[in-house]
Amino acid sequence: KKQLSAYFEFYNLKRPHSSLDKMTPNEFYYDQLPQQNKVA
Length: 40
What we know:
By secondary structure, this protein is mostly helical.
């Protein structure tokens, strides 16, 4: 179970994907979230 968890962590957080323009799935997901209003 630990090995599977480690693989999912690698796959989603560390491994760049060519179909996501070399981003990790995690980076891609958070990049797609709407930008929150920022106070200047």
